[in-house]
Specification:
With 729 residues, the chain is α+β, with helices and mostly antiparallel strands. Among the domains are: 33-72 and 83-156, Pleckstrin-homology domain (PH domain)/Phosphotyrosine-binding domain (PTB) (PH-domain like, Roll); 190-517, no CATH class. It is built from 23 helices and 20 strands. The radius of gyration is 28 Å and the shape is globular. One of its GO terms (biological process) is phosphatidylinositol dephosphorylation. InterPro entries: MTMR12-like_C, MTMR12_PTP, Myotubularin, Myotubularin-like_Pase_dom, PH-like_dom_sf, Prot-tyrosine_phosphatase-like.
């Protein structure tokens, strides 16, 4: 790190005298200061009386940083979960969501060139932090410079090559940190795909191909992928990869999950006929009853739309972008109605239900499932990932989960650049599909903690990493776009490509002690069996085979193949139909039987894993959405208190185990580091590890009928509006 020293500044105002301490701005390699302003007051969010900290506001080509008096901050061993790249008062430019200005007590959205400059600046972030800066005591020229600079560098359209990602990669070439323990499969080689085929036993029916090496066939597809073995490779080239069933994953029983992108829409009847006959041949290759039965699942016209996801999240996030304590309590009274009207939790439920339906087809009916979508790069990524997470315990390990994201999202061509709107070129393209996936994963982690090697904190920091432009993982629309932009500017360095960091190297962001919070100490590892045991269990698949399996049709009804083929063709040619052939009452009955039967038995954490999707079972991901709101914390409580007690017990058990091992002269087990982070749960809050105890500066007065935490809901319903001082609770 390089540093910029701002020295000591005396600030005199009519209200108070402030002395700024000597503060240092830490810059990353390649980072440059663009503009700055002094004598800026950063308000304390939970304090409605407008108290805060004086300091300097700086905008670089990477972040907005506030450098204030650190005396009020907890800067000791208790704040062990620090991000090495982003400080507590840093906002990456890509993380800025909206900028507001306050003019004569009125809040207005800021954009473009301003004629008048605000006395107060409010920044809403995509990680749901809210920053408020008072500019009343700042010099007018500095106000103009910092406000204009922030607006321009966060909202103006950018060119890809102007992203800080490239400046950092060029400057940090010799400082690249790599984690030797990171064994994430990147799926950027033929060998990786062959390994995955072998792992899932899919290599009997599917083959890895290199027909798109150098992206000669299609820029949308990765250089290597997997297709059905009987399919000739030249078919891939026919319509630039469209209309080709691409393999995602194979089940233990031989069924497989496939995806396919639609063919381009054509008006010419001759071309339409050619497309139809092409799809007919493709379908005959993969659908060969009674041996191979394919169920098509059209996600473009019979499931969620991207517009629905975008609208729902826009409403949902507003519930957490709270400017002050008063606003929190005002909205708290309407919390449930506001939450329901956003439809975000319902969208999560629909995604999980769709994944369970597909799981039932594969697991119980032994059918192949073909996911259809216009480009197979949004909802296909989401649903295929959820299905694998539910069916494959390997995906529930940290390395397995990271490899899953690499395979289905990064190599699957999800347009992270557009969907996160990193270039600010089209707000309509910004849809939080990946965040929706992480929220669905959180529901599973929350309901079945011992099944996952990673924690909810891991998911939270992964969602934050979407907006840190030093990692290449979430900053391109496709592998082709990444590979073609890894060259350097200038003739003399053209030959050597840039070395871009991957987000999976967690040592870049966190120290080893902090990384222990990303690993679940309650994870139950799969017991290793000797060869004799494996032989005896060869045909059993955990507890799934104890489920009442719905009998798959040994031979389809007359005309089934023809109808299903026509249905596939209609969808891939872009002709909208109202209903899938297979979306029937029978499907719902199968789903309900499968779902109820699974939940009636004890959970096998290394087998099939289904979430509860009934009403109250789908919850708000509190750690991610509420972590910056002090009023929402439970002091010394929440899940962190439970975890702390469990870790204390684990530490005690480990200590006893070590004593036993010593008696047997065996090697000592390694000490667990996680417990030391959570040992004193009384000093932590439910927002841990993103907040320790927060000091409330004000004691809001509010009716008990609007505050759920004061008692049971039944009691609250009977009470009349009376007032309680929160400071006495």
């Amino acid at each position: 790190d390089t540093g910029v020293n701002y020295g000591t500044v005396e600030i005199h105002t009519n209200e108070k005298e402030v002395t700024e301490k000597e503060v240092t701005l830490h810059l990353l390699p390649g980072e440059q200061v663009l503009c700055e302003a002094s004598t800026v007051l950063k308000y304390v969010q939970e304090d409605s009386s407008q108290h805060g900290v004086y300091g300097r506001l700086v905008c670089t080509d990477f972040k907005i940083a506030f450098l204030g008096d650190d005396e009020s901050a907890l800067d000791n061993d208790e704040t062990q979960f620090k991000n090495k790249v982003i400080g507590e008062n840093d906002i990456t430019l890509h993380c800025v969501d909206q900028i507001y200005g306050v003019f004569d007590e009125k809040k207005k959205t800021l954009f473009g060139q301003l004629k008048k400059y605000p006395e107060k600046l409010i920044i809403h972030c995509k990680d749901l932090r809210v920053f408020q800066f008072c500019l009343r005591y700042t010099k007018e020229e500095e106000v103009k410079r910092i406000v204009s600079g922030i607006i321009h560098h966060t909202q103006a359209p950018k060119l890809l090559k102007r992203l800080f990602l490239f400046s950092y990669a060029t400057a940090a070439e010799n400082n690249t940190v790599t984690d030797p323990k990171n064994h994430t499969v990147m799926f950027d080689s033929l060998k990786d795909w062959c390994w995955e085929l072998e792992r899932t036993k899919g290599n009997m029916k599917y083959k890895a191909v290199s027909v798109n090496e150098g992206y000669e066939v299609c820029e949308r597809l990765p250089a290597y992928f997997v297709i059905p073995t009987p399919l000739p490779e030249e078919n891939v080239q026919r319509f630039q990869g469209h209309g080709i069933p691409i393999w995602c994953w194979s089940c233990h029983n031989g069924s497989a999950l496939l995806k396919m992108s639609a063919l381009p829409k054509e008006q010419d009847d001759g071309i339409l006929q050619i497309q139809k006959s092409f799809l007919d041949r493709i379908y005959k290759t993969i659908h060969r009853p009674p041996y191979e039965i394919v169920k098509t699942e059209d996600l473009s016209s019979n499931f969620l739309s991207l517009q629905e996801i975008q609208t729902a999240y826009s409403k949902f996030k507003q519930l957490f972008l709270i400017d002050n304590s008063t606003e929190f309590w005002d909205t708290d009274i309407k919390w449930f109605s506001l939450l329901e009207s956003s439809s975000w939790l319902d969208i999560i439920r629909r995604c999980l239900k769709k994944a369970i339906e597909i799981t039932e087809c594969m697991e119980a009916q032994n059918m192949n499932v073909l996911l259809l979508e216009e480009n197979a790069s949004d909802l296909c990524c989401l649903i295929s990932s959820l299905v694998q997470l539910m069916m494959d315990p390997h995906c529930r390990t940290r390395i397995g989960f990271q490899s899953l994201i690499q395979k289905e999202w990064v190599m699957g061509g999800h347009c992270f650049l557009d969907r996160c709107n990193h270039l600010r070129q089209n707000d309509k393209e910004e849809v939080p599909v990946f965040l929706l996936f992480l929220d669905c994963v959180w529901q599973l982690v929350h309901q079945h903690p011992p099944a996952f090697e990673f924690t909810e904190t891991y998911l939270t920091v992964l969602s934050d990493s979407l907006y840190i432009p030093i990692f290449s993982t979430f900053f391109f629309n496709s592998p082709h776009q990444k590979d073609t932009n890894m060259g350097r500017e200038g003739q003399e360095t053209q030959s050597k490509p840039l070395n871009l960091l991957t987000v999976w190297d967690w040592s870049v962001q966190f120290e080893p002690k902090a990384q222990t919070l990303l690993k679940n100490p309650l994870y139950v590892e799969k017991p290793k069996l000797d060869k004799g045991q494996r032989k005896g269990m060869r045909f059993k698949h955990q507890r799934q085979l104890s489920l009442p399996l719905t009998q798959s049709k040994s031979s389809p009804k007359r005309g089934f193949f023809r109808e299903e083929t026509d249905h596939l063709i209609k969808n891939l040619l872009g002709k909208r139909i109202s209903k899938l052939i297979n979306s029937s009452d029978e499907l719902q009955d199968n789903f309900r039987e499968f779902y109820d039967s699974w939940h009636s038995k004890p959970t096998d954490y290394h087998g099939l894993l289904l979430p509860h999707i009934e009403g109250p079972e789908i919850k708000v991901w509190a750690q991610r959405y509420l972590r910056w709101i002090p009023e929402a914390q439970i002091l010394g409580g929440g899940r962190v208190a439970t975890m702390s007690k469990l870790l204390e017990m684990m530490e005690e058990v480990q200590s006893l185990q070590e004593k036993i091992d010593e008696r047997h002269h065996s090697q000592q087990a390694p000490q667990a580091e996680a417990p030391c982070l959570l040992r004193n749960s009384a000093r932590l809050s439910s927002l841990f590890p993103f907040a320790l105890l927060q000091r409330h500066s004000s004691k809001p007065v509010l009716p008990t009928s609007g505050w759920k935490a004061l008692g049971d809901e039944d009691d609250l319903a009977k009470q009349e509006d009376e007032f309680v001082d929160l400071g006495d609770v």
